[in-house]
Design goal:
Elements lengths: L5 H14 L10 H9 L4 E4 L6 H11 L3 E5 L3 H13 L4 E4 L5 H12 L5 E4 L1 H4 L2 H8 L3 E6 L19 H7 L4 E6 L4 H11 L6 E3 L7 E7 L3 H9 L6 E5 L3 H13 L4 E4 L5 H12 L5 E4 L12 E6 L6 H8 L9 E7 L1 H12 L3 H19 L5 H7 L13 H4 L6 E2 L1 H13 L6 H8 L5 H5 L16 H13 L3 E3 L6 E3 L1 H8 L5 E2 L20 H18 L3 H4 L2 H10 L4 H5 L6 H22 L17 H8 L14 H10 L4 H8 L3 H13 L7 H6 L4 H14 L5 H6 L6 H14 L9
Parallel strand pairs: 1-6, 1-7, 2-4, 2-5, 3-4, 5-6, 8-13, 9-11, 9-12, 10-11, 12-13
Antiparallel strand pairs: 14-17, 15-16
Helix pairs in contact: 1-2, 1-3, 2-3, 14-15, 15-16, 18-19, 19-21, 23-25, 23-27, 29-31, 31-35, 33-35
């Protein structure tokens, strides 16, 4: 089928985006990808989890006259996609082994009657003779391959059955083929295109940077206590804890349950019924925490996962990226904590040795990349994102532990280094970090007594530092090339440079203690929506979801409820303007939610906020997440005294200069700009004249920044900074961004 006149089809796609899915505009690359697919060009899409991959083929599927086949590796993934599409009024079905004979027959009948737009299949089902016979009688316009990295031996999840998909392409040559994945290195991308015979030009790669994910690595000391401390910051919120083994999953699940947590296990040792039940409880918000092996998560699209803990080391960087990608799919903040011990490497190395020689080579490269990410003392996004072939030049992400750690001057740690290195030497360079630390701190463990290490001169000479401090020091000694660590057994060995330290000819500079705070809250992300209303809406959503036998997010995601609790929509038109509210959703649920909002606003004397005049609400902070999870600490809307951003905004609007405001309130320029931005977001007016004069950029650069803002949108500063290749200072962008908002209020369109 040749498609003529792609411009009208793109306009049609824009209409479907709003009416069916409830989104105002496309995310980055979605429009270009859909345009390419509508032209019937085979397309490779690399887009991070939560980036909007599904819409890239779902929108064309609705436009195409014929059927769209979606090959997906997991039944749970198909089920989730089909449920969400049906809630949006799209005719979608799946064929898989979970269907009864009657369900299978009815589904096939619907396909034969051409009542279906999207058909989801597992590779095994696709290759069955009866499936091929069915498809041969139908007009197939599109073949979509989800989780396409499974096709490559260089991928982290290679599946031989995926290689056979090329045979299906030959059977439906008129169908456009789309391959999608969230994780693919340049080598994997090349493999996918070669195997599927794709044109090299039709490749779309979105940024791998998930800005809403906070990345943190901590030395694994007492993992259970560390996890408990972490979980206390996320009461009643959804999260996943990944463990290396089934045994570890079972032990941790039982321990957390004993502590009173809402938790379930998930691993291959459980029966299929238990796994399915536990996953459903988690998806439907009836259970808050899943403790799992890597078998869990690939098939779910739960958007409100607020944290990920890696209790053990993931096997490679691609697995890590995919697993943290299951958090924060709603665009709100999420925290990803990895507990790291060199001892965990031994487990992974053992399994690597069970592979073929070629597979071992690939696995070791993957593991080395993961260790570079863990060991870095620069921004964690640098090794993570560049691993996937993307340039990353932002000096400070402000969303990882390294970037937010207070930068202290390096101090002389030569004496601690001499103690540690001497202990490594005196124990024969046969032991790992933990044992060396135990000797230094005078432990009486069985292992120390077994080797008579309590008799060494270094025994007990390191009691002045805690175990955590010594662990952090040991990592610095490795990074500075004073010793190496055997990746298979974990034993430490000295380098020639270490002997220079012994002699005193080499000074060692470093840090004594790693800052281990849970960096999460960021003042610039504060956003106030009515939390009492949010809880009422969330309760009704849960009730409706249970009644319809679907997960709550299928009704509306948290992001939609947050917008309801911010804008207080009072009419059909206002509700349809919110994120994720399409016509089908409104027909099912619109009046129910409108009635709750209207009643609440009447009781609390609240008025609807005009959405066109306000930037889209920013993601909630962790403190706000905790408050919405704990109704007991929620305060109803009450009149409050004027806050500083209002005082600043009013002073500026009434004629005060920026410099005068800085002097009067004793604040810096950045703080003034933040206050004015917040004041503007709340629907007030600000003067634009002084803002343009405040910028020190030449006129040509000012125009370039304003043009870039116009092209990219006003939602966030970072995409603007990146589009300008980091050549324009953030403060200058912030000034011109505020100027743009103040002069374009009536024309502002909120970004999705």
């Amino acid at each position: 089928m040749k498609i003529e006149g792609s411009a009208p089809l793109i306009n049609q796609a824009q209409g479907i985006l709003k009416k069916t899915f409830g989104f105002d505009c496309f995310r980055p690359l979605q429009k270009e990808i859909i345009h390419n697919i509508l032209k019937k060009n085979d397309t490779l899409v690399i887009m991070p989890t939560g980036g909007g991959k599904s819409l890239c083929y779902q929108v064309p599927a609705i436009i195409f006259q014929g059927l769209t086949i979606v090959v997906s590796p997991l039944i749970s993934l198909m089920k989730d996609q089909v449920e969400q599409l049906r809630e949006n009024g799209v005719k979608a079905v799946s064929l898989n082994s979970s269907l009864s004979y009657e369900q299978y027959r009815n589904t096939v009948a619907g396909i034969m009657k051409k009542e279906v737009k999207l058909l989801y299949l597992a590779p095994e089902t696709l290759f069955k003779e009866k499936t091929l016979a069915l498809l041969s009688s139908l007009k197939v316009d599109c073949l979509t391959i989800d989780e396409a990295h499974c096709i490559s031996e260089w991928g982290h999840d290679f599946r031989p059955e995926y290689r056979k998909i090329i045979e299906i392409r030959h059977k439906i040559p008129s169908a456009v083929c789309i391959a999608l994945t969230a994780t693919a290195t340049p080598q994997v991308r090349k493999d996918i295109k070669d195997i599927l015979s794709f044109n090299q030009a039709n490749e779309f790669i979105a940024s791998f940077n998930r800005e809403n994910l906070f990345l943190q690595v901590l030395p694994k000391d007492d993992p259970f206590s560390q996890s408990l401390q972490f979980l206390k910051k996320f009461p009643n919120q959804s999260g996943i804890i990944y463990c290396f083994s089934r045994k570890q999953v079972d032990e941790l699940y039982q321990a957390l349950q004993d502590e009173g947590f809402s938790v379930r296990p998930y691993h291959a040792g459980l029966s299929e019924k238990e796994r399915t039940q536990n996953q459903e409880l988690f998806i439907r918000d009836d259970v808050q925490i899943i403790v799992a092996t890597i078998a869990f998560g690939m098939g779910i699209n739960k958007p409100n996962i607020r944290f990920i803990i890696h209790y053990d080391l993931p096997k490679n960087i691609e697995t890590y990226y995919q697993e943290i990608g299951r958090a924060g799919r709603d665009g709100l903040k999420a925290h990803c904590l990895l507990l790291f011990s060199y001892g965990d490497i031994q487990k992974i190395k053992y399994f690597i040795t069970q592979k073929s020689e070629q597979e071992q080579r690939v696995a070791n490269l993957h593991l080395s990349a993961l260790l570079r990410f863990i060991e870095t003392d620069t921004c964690r996004r640098l090794p993570l994102i560049t691993y996937f072939g993307e340039d990353y030049a932002v000096p400070k992400c402000n969303a990882c532990d390294n970037c937010l750690e207070e930068k202290k001057e390096l101090i002389d740690i030569t004496i601690p280094a001499q103690k540690f290195l001497s202990c490594v030497k005196r124990t024969g360079e046969r032991f790992g970090t933990n044992h060396i630390i135990d000797v230094l701190r005078g432990s009486q463990s069985q292992k120390i007594l077994k080797f008579n290490h309590q008799k060494l001169s270094t025994y007990g000479i390191g009691k002045d530092f805690s175990k955590k401090q010594w662990f952090h020091l040991s990592r610095q000694f490795i990074q500075r090339g004073l010793m190496t660590q055997d990746m298979e057994f974990g034993s430490l060995k000295l380098t020639p440079k270490a002997y220079e330290v012994f002699k005193g000819t080499e000074k060692v500079l470093g840090k004594i203690e790693q800052k281990q705070e849970e960096y999460f809250q960021r003042k610039e992300d504060s956003f106030e929506y009515d939390q009492g209303l949010f809880h009422l809406l969330r309760g009704k959503r849960k009730e409706l979801a249970d009644s319809a036998n679907v997960p709550p997010y299928v009704v509306f995601p948290d992001k939609t409820l947050i917008e309801m609790a911010f804008f207080f929509p009072q009419s059909k038109g206002s509700l349809l303007n919110l994120y994720g509210v399409g016509l089908a959703k409104f027909e099912k649920y619109g009046n129910i939610f409108l009635n709750i909002i209207k009643q609440y606003c009447q009781e609390h004397h609240l008025q609807e906020k005009p959405r066109r005049m306000i930037s889209r609400p920013r993601p909630m902070t962790q403190e706000q997440s905790n408050r919405l999870a704990n109704p007991s600490i929620i305060n109803s809307s009450k009149p409050v005294s004027k806050r500083k951003h209002v005082l600043v905004g009013e002073a500026y609007y009434e004629g005060a200069s920026i410099e005068g405001i800085m002097t009067k309130f004793g604040i810096k320029l950045d703080t003034v700009l933040n206050h004015l931005s917040k004041y503007l977001q709340e629907g007030h007016q600000i003067r634009s004249d002084e803002l343009l004069k405040l910028s020190t950029l030449p006129a040509e650069q000012k125009n370039l920044v304003l043009k870039t803002i116009d092209q990219i949108g006003t939602g966030f500063l970072k995409p603007i900074f990146e589009a300008l290749k980091g050549e324009i200072d953030y403060t200058e962008i912030k000034i011109l961004h505020l100027y743009y908002l103040s002069t374009h209020r009536e024309m502002m369109k909120d970004e999705v």
